[in-house]
Every structure is written in structure tokens, then in C-alpha cells.
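When time allows, look over one protein, given below as sequence and C-alpha cells. The question is which stretches look regular and which look disordered:
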Amino acid sequence: MPVPVERFALCDPIWSALRAQAQELSEKEPSLASLAHATILNHKQLEDALSYHLAQKIGGEDVSAMQAREVFDEALGADPAIGEAVRADLSAVFERDPACHSYVQAFLFFKGFHALQCHRTAHWLWITGRTTFAYFLQSRVSQLFAVDIHPAARMGRGIMMDHATGIVIGETAVVEDDVSMLHGVTLGGSGKEKGDRHPKIRRGVLLSAGAKVLGNIEVGENSRVGAGSVVIQPVPANCTVAGVPARVIGCAGSDHPSQTMDQRIETPEAEPQQ
């Protein structure tokens, strides 16, 4: 039997809201009632629901859904910070994506959210020495979601990957808290160098669609990278960069560009011809 929503209302508001929305979904769309119950309503906490949901997606011929769930459960149980990050990520998607109307929508259907949560377990596997299974998760996520994040990459919390198709994040990349990125973003190297060779994206940054940041460079706090830009030099805090190669073209447009999600870049009007 589903566990009553009220039991979790005070201690875990994200989980409580997710369960309430899943119950509403099951009543309004009977064809998805089984999905809502199996994935959310039959579980006692968000971590259990997430491990079940991700395992159903990751499981296949090589690793069964049951085996995958054991790994997700192990990671989520060993590191409570993963569960905290999951909740922050869910909130980020709901608050920043105008196409997202509920937690349950993001939880069930948004592959950027799914890819990021799989990476969190892959990263836990990586730092605990289980690198082979971490690589398996990376490969499977790339195959299923078209998102390729190296297991060693360090990802903060409150991150949103909108659409997510084509996102690539390299081994030594760092993405801090409250970053938003859209499809086609690359955080890559600039050649065949070894060691620390990938970007460091500081908190509050907005990486617009198709942005490429290459090399061991820093994108400063609350900055904004324009769509289709290629960044090969460090970006100061609170700035907008755009172009190929990217250059500073002004301020970031807001105090928190990752939350406002405004990708528009104002350009000076051309002077009228005489």
C-alpha cells in the first residue's frame, strides 16, 4: 500500500510534494497510474523512488535492473549528500524551466535530471575505487540520454540541464552549485594535454545552448556564456561573453543568470546611415 503523504510533509517537503503530484497524476491520467505507483507512491523516501526509477532505465542485458538498483541504493545510502543534491536539482528544474510544471514531471520524464543523478552515483563509485562500474554507468547514460559526463567530473548541487542532448563534460571539469546549462554544452579539453585540463564553472553561471568551454580555464561566478560561443580564455565574474572565440561584451544581465535563464544578448543599435 502507498505510504500516506502526510507522514513526510514536515520532514521532507520535496518528497511530500512529489508524492502528492504523483497521486494527482494517477487520478487524472489512469493510463499512467501504474507508473506513478511503481515509481513513486510505493516507496517510503525519495532515495528509494529514485534508485528504482533510474534502475529501470539503466538496466538491460549486461546489468539487470535489480543489479543496477543495488548499486544506486548503495551509493544513496552511503552518502546522504547525494540525496540532498537530488532535491536541490529537482527544485532547480522546477523553478528555472518554464516547460516544467511540477516535480513529478521532472522526476519522471526529464532526461537531463536523470543523467545528472546517474552521474552522482557514478562519481561515488569513482571516488570509492569502483571505476569500472562507473565507466559502465557513463557509457549507459551516454547511450540512453545523449549526455556524456566523465565519472570523475565534480558536480555541485542545484544544477539544471535543460533538454541536455549533446552535453559533454570532461574528467577534470568542476561545475559548482546553481549552474544552468542547455543542450549542446561542452566542457572539454583544448588538445591532448594530460592532468587538470578541463574548465572550472563557478556558481551561478548560465551556459547557453551550444556553448563550448575548452581547457583548464575558469568561468567566474554569476557569468553568462552566449549561445554557440567558444570560450578559450578565462571569464571574469558577473560578465557576459559571446562569439567565436568568445570575448567579454558586457555585464551578466542579472545578479543570478543561472536562475533568470535569459540567453538574450543586447547589442547596440547601428547608427543610421547619412
Observations:
- Residues 5-9 have pLDDT under 50 and may be disordered.
- Residues 80-96 form the longest helix (17 residues).
- The chain is about 40% helix and 15% strand.
- The CA atoms of residues 75 and 121 lie 6 Å apart.
